[in-house]
Amino acid sequence: MKQTKKKKTSKKIFLARKVNVQVLVALLALVLFAGLVFAFSSEHHPAATKKIIPKSSGNTAKKPLSPKPQPKVEPQNFLPYAGIRVPILMFHHIRDPKPIKDAIGRNLSVSPEKFKADLAWLNAHNYQAINIDDLPAIFSGKLRVTKKPVVITFDDGYEDNFIEAFPDLVAAGMIGNFNIITGAIGNPGYMTAGQLKAMERAGMEFGSHTVSHLDLATLTPVRQTEELMGSKTSLANLLGKEISSLCYPSGEYNALTIAIAKQCGYRLATTTKFGYADAKSSALELPRVRMTESSNFNSLFQK
Q1: d(Cα 285, Cα 254) in Å, to the nearest integer?
Q2: Span 208-219, mean pLDDT?
Q3: N or C: which end of the chain has fewer CB within 10 A?
Q4: How much is the pTM?
Q5: Neighbours of 245 (CB within 10 A)
Q6: Which helix (H) or strand (E) covers residue 240, if one does?
Q7: Torsion of CA 121, 293, 167, 247, to 10 degrees
Q8: What is the pLDDT of residue 81?
Q9: Model confidence over 186-195: pLDDT tens digits?
């Protein structure tokens, strides 16, 4: 009897242990399955990110990034536009004046050597040649300049301007403003249309000097209009650009000439009156500085 009870008790213990093992195996399987599901979900879920721990070679702290050095901006030493005076130089022939017999032709001539020296002086004294059309913007302060402005004009359109003056201007980095008698283009001693175009492509500037170089003050309103408008139109057609400046032939003009020049669309005009252009100058009566073989900038620019 006792053995039977003992066998029953042992069988119960064995069954209980068997159940416990099965439960334990089931739990382990469940944990393993849950782990696999979590790993698969972390690997393929779009929002999952892998955290990468960088290797450390010690206890050194990471140095902060230094800002990139910015390029140094040099200050521009602009000239004060209030009260600025601009010399407008007046040249004619660039040729040796010594062989010229007539006094007028000799006085209108500056030798190539003197012209080169004049350009060198201007560069050495911080002058920069500008287009005459820039004067209003400079006087109003809309155009600021770092060098002293100067305008270099040539009257009539002589061929020696192309042969002598043009190469020297280019070499010196200067702009020349050439006032052309359009009726004389291509005549002996004057520049050709091809030469004018070549100079324009190289950066030279051009103004009108009328069609026939007549004394405008003695002409009728109709004839003045023909001279002023005719030259402006033909020069613009030749060079493919607007012509906005005028030079009065021999400096002769009157109040009617100024009124007609405005109607023709001229914005600036130069005379033969001595002086320096400034904000108070009349735009259609700008003074100039006549240049001769004996001209001296040191004395001229002190006046």
Answers
A1: 10
A2: 98
A3: N
A4: 0.74
A5: 26
A6: none
A7: 100
A8: 64
A9: 999 999 999 9
